[in-house]
Amino acid sequence: MQPADALSNIDLLVVGGGVAGLSAAVRAAAAEPGLRTAVVAKAAADYSATWWAQGGVAAVLAEGEVERPSFTDSVESHLTDTLKAGAGLCDGEAVQVLVGEGPQRVRELASHGANFDRGPSGRWLLAREGGHSVARVVHSGGAATGAEVERTLVAAAVALGVTLVENWFAVDLIVRAGRCAGVTFLAPDGTTVDVEARHVLLGTGGAGQLYPVTTNPLQSTGDGIAMALRAGAAVGDVEFVQFHPTALHAGSPDGPRVLLSEALRGEGAILRDEAGERFVDEMAPRDIVAASVAERIRSSARGHVWLDVSGVPGFSSRFPSLAERVRQAGVDPDREWLPVAPAAHYMCGGVMADLDGATTLPGLWVAGETACSGVHGANRLASNSLLEGMVFAARAVEAILAGKSSPDPTGVLRALNSPAPNDCGAIGVERLHRNVEAPPGHVGPQSSKAPRERPSGTVSDDRRRLQKAMADGVGVLRDAGSLSDAAGVVDVIRHRYGCGPRDDPSGVASLETRNLAEVASAVIAGARARTESRGGHRRSDFPSTLDAMSCRFVQ
Which residues contact 235 (CB under 8 A, 6 or more apart)? Predict the structure, then answer.
């Protein structure tokens, strides 16, 4: 059977083969009566950003399930840690859903065959990561949890008869009468195929390829967020790009950087500057550590700082896959400090959704990194990412099975039509329009350094040009001038790649560049409007956090 033949009469069309998409597909196929479900992925179904995830899954499990040290954890503690990391922009109701339903999702994953690391008693081992007050992260292979999660979900989907279509690129959403009715795909043979479905769920991951240095795979080009923007679905919080502070600054520049898991710092690894001095609390949330690392790099002659893992007991045996990747990059962890620098890691914002994953476009659902569910706010707490995909994918499917057809005013959608916080504590919103300047008083002096002429060269040249502009202007540290420079480059590229899919002779590469420019434009718009520093958004010209900006910028 040809893929197109299997993509008919679909109840749930899942775009993306990571933890969010596969969790939704497995749950939908296992339901009684089930949903006719198909998963369409732009690469191999077992190769997504999920595969690269290292740390683990954060969840408060029962005492009898884990090798528990001498402390008492609680859902309330996980909630508090998440809210603190989110720097005032988390949706409390969404976080409560995440931490409350997370443990059961972990147990379900284990029931499908996921092998988490166990201690002498046979119970699950726990790790502590930055921003967590206690150890609560289950993991696999030390730092290979994502690969195990991906393996488990692919196997479960195949066993349940889910249609899996690989190497099909999602071009745009099909919208009819104000409702999402399917997706247009580019097939491997270069033809476009319209796949209709009663419901569409985006699980396409983030947009790490906005930057030249990232922990994300080459496929992370913001496709779902870009499609949603073009279709008119609300997108929020995209200025909060999380940079992982400890990516290995060694090895090949092509492909994802080796991410040195936060669990290393939880086990005793220390960050040192050029003088060999410790300069930051390694267990602080990622935004704080990344900003401190970036400041040290900017004031030194090197492009990195050091991670000293000599204090981690049995590093090579505790983290075998990580130790091997470090050695492959030409660094001996038993003898050397590891050179590290921040790398683009995670989109804290995305397509806005209610507590069931329903977006402002009826028929369109979203889960995982593509979503703005409100659980991350301005900065994601470590190891809440896989958890978010598992929890909200399950909720989306349950809502579809229950007959839900449009979004509710819950979670981040609660205040969408109200500019001020309401009695439920929803964070107010401010609408942004990327085709006009940000509101007066929100943007500093403009720079004229960015070229405005039409770029020349190949698609690869344009992609590198865009990535350099984002790294220089919209990185860990940013200001009005750098944002203006980046906007000048991105606007030209966005205009150049604004053609529709059927007019595009360059195939996937140019469609990806089109999506990157679309998302980059949204990131810059949010960053220019947010004249403060909060979470993953750091403005050197506005270093303080302002109560007046405890709002969500929506596009």
Answer: 225, 228, 229, 349, 350, 351, 352, 372, 522, 554, 555
Catalytic, out of 68, 136, 265, 286: 286
**Before 33, cis peptide (omega within 30)?**
yes
Residues forming a β-bridge with 196: 182
- Tell me the C-alpha distance between 104 and 187, whole Å: 37
Mean pLDDT by groups of 10 residues along the chain of 555 residues: 73 95 96 91 75 79 83 92 96 97 96 93 90 92 82 94 94 97 94 96 97 92 97 97 92 76 86 94 89 90 91 87 88 92 95 98 98 97 94 98 95 78 64 54 36 62 95 96 97 82 65 96 97 96 94 95
Q: Which residues belong to CATH 3.50.50.60 in the chain?
A: 9-239+347-413
User: Is 325 annotated as catalytic?
Assistant: no
Query: Is residue 202 helix, strand or coil?
Result: strand
Label the pairing between strands 371-372 and 350-352.
Answer: parallel
CATH class for domain 428-554? mainly alpha
What are the structure tokens assigned to 163, written together? 């249609």
Distance CA 153, CA 23 (A): 7
Ranges of CATH 1.20.58.100 domains, the chain: 428-554
Residues of the chain with CATH 3.90.700.10: 245-342
Tell me which residue of 99, 104, 93 sits closest to 374, measured CA to CA: 93
Report the CATH fold assignment for 245-342.
Flavocytochrome C3; Chain A, domain 1 (3.90.700)
- Which residues have C-beta within 8 Å of that of residue 419, sequence separation ≥ 6? 428, 429, 430
| Nearest partner of 258 among 247, 272, 266, 245, judged by Cα | 247
Select from 2.60.300.12, 2.60.120.680, 3.50.50.60, 3.90.1150.10 the CATH code of 9-239+347-413.
Answer: 3.50.50.60
